[in-house]
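Hi everyone, sorry if this is the wrong subforum. Our group has a chain we'd like a structural model of before ordering constructs, and none of us has done structure prediction before. Sequence below.
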Amino acid sequence: MRKQLLGERRDRNGRAVLPWRLAKGLLTLTLLLPPASPTATAVGDASSVPAAPGGPSLQFPASPSAAPESPLILMTDGPTCGGYQECLPQDRLERIPNLMGGFFARGGDATFPPVNGLATFTSTQLLFVDSFGSAVRFPSVAYSGPNGFSFTPPLNCPVTSLGPLAPFDPFMYFTRYGVVGSTYPLAQNQAFSGAVDAAFRGAQFVSGTATLEVPGVNQRDVPLGAGYSNSFVYQFGVSDKATILLPNPAGGGLAGRNDYFENGSALPRDRAYFYYSGVSDFAALGRDFNINRYTLGGEKTFCDGRASVEVRLPLAGTADPTQSVVGPVSGLDSFVLGNLGVLGKAALVRTDDFILTAGFGVSVPTAPDTRINSLSGAPLLEVNNDTVLLQPVVATAWAPTERLFVQGAAQFDIDAFGNPVYGADGNGGLTRLGRFMDQGYTYLHGGLGYWVYQDYAPEARLSGVALLTELSYIKSMGEGNQVVTDQATLAPLDGGVDDLNVTVGANVLLGDRASISAGVALPVGGPKPYDWVAQVQLNWYFGRWR
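Answer:
Right subforum, don't worry. Here is the predicted structure as C-alpha cells:
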C-alpha cells in the first residue's frame, strides 16, 4: 500500500484530492494574472480565464450581462468604425427598403339620352358702345360660362346692335346718359360663338343682351363710350346619346386606389409615413391632366414583430367628382379625399434572410360621391360611395447577401358590394336605378435592390444608400356589371386594364430611424394611362430597433 504524503488528502474511496488551502491559493493567483486577448464569443458560451504558465485553466459560465443590448446585434471582431466595433445586423431583412409601386385610378362610362338646355355666358367687365349707337364693341376681356368655361375674344370685336341705345346729349358730345338697368338686344358675335361651339358641341346662339351699368361715363375717360355689361345665351342640343366619363368612387374617385405595396413591403414594421406621387398627363374623363397625390399612413407591429396593422389615407389634387353632362371637364385641381385603407399582415415564415407574409386589407368609403349634373346644375346621375373593397395580399423578401435583396408582392381588389346609382326622376329629385359593381384588379410587384453604401456605426448620420428597380403589373379581372335604365346607362370602361410599369429609384437610410426613397415610374406596356409618375417616400421608424 502506497504511503500517504504529507498534507495529502484522500476521499472515502482512497483517491487523492487537492488540499483546500492549496486550491484556494491557486485560484487567487489565477484571478490576479492579466487576462489574455479577448476572442469573439457568442452569448451563452463559457468564458476562459487563462492560467499562469504551467498552471491549470478554469472555466466559468458567461455572465448574463455579456449579452448584447439589442437582439438584432452581434458584436464581432473586425474593423472598427468611428471607434466602435463594426455591428452587423443578425437580421438583414430589417434594412430592406419598401417597394415604391406606381399609381392606379380608373373611372367609368355614363350614357344619357338626348339632353337639351340653355346656358348663359357673361362678360366679367363692361361693354363699350360707340357714340352714335350704330355698333357695340367688346374689348379683350374674359367671358365666363358653365363648367369653368372662359373665353377672351379679340380686341374690339364688333357685335351689331339690334335696337336703340340711350339718348344722345348734343351739349356733351362725348357723354351718353341712360337709365341704369336699361337693356338692349345684341346680335350674335361669330368669334365668341366659335369658342362656345368648340367647348360645347352643338351649341346654338339664342340671344344677346346689353345692360346699362354706369351712366354718364365720359368718352375721354373711357374710350368708345358708356358702361354696359353683356351676356349671350346658347342652347345645347345633343341629338344622340351622350357618353360621359366619370370618376368611380369604388377606386376613391381619381385620388387613386390603395395599393399597399406603394411604399410597402412584406416586413411588419413600426413606422409613420408620408409619400407623394406626381402623375403627369393622366388620361381620364376624355382628356389629359396632372394629379398630385399625397398619402399619410402608419403601421404598428405586435406578436413580437411578426404581425402588423397598417392604416393609410390618400388625398389628391385631381378632377372634381362632380361634372356636367355637356362641356369641358371642370375642377382639374380640386382637393379630393380618397378611400381609407386598412391592412393586417403576418409572417408565415421568417429567417435571418427570408420572409413570407400574408394579409388582408379593406378600403372603406371616405371619398366623395360622384355626380353628373345638367346644364342648369340639377343632378342627372349620382353614384353614392358605399365602397367596401376586399384586398388579400401575399408578399416575400429575401436578402441573400449583406448588399443584395429581392422582393415580390401580389394584391387583389374585389368590389364586394358595389355602389348604389341614382338618376333624375323628372321632378327635381333622384330615384334609385340599381347598383354598380366595379371590375376586380390584380397588382403584381417585383423588386431588386443593391446597397452601394453601408455604415453600421451607431453615430452614423447616413447609414445606407441602395439602388432600386421594380416591375409592376396591373390586370383587370371580370367585367363588372352595368346599370341600364331609361335615364342613363352606367358601365365600367371598355377594354379592361393590362398595364406594365417599370420604376427606378434610390433609398437613403438616415441613422437608424428614417429613410427616404425617390424614383420615377414609367409605363412600358398596355395603354399607358400616364406619361410618368414622380415619387418621394418618407418613413420614420419607432419601437423596435431597425
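For your construct planning: Helices lie at 20-32, 190-199. The CA atoms of residues 204 and 235 lie 5 Å apart.
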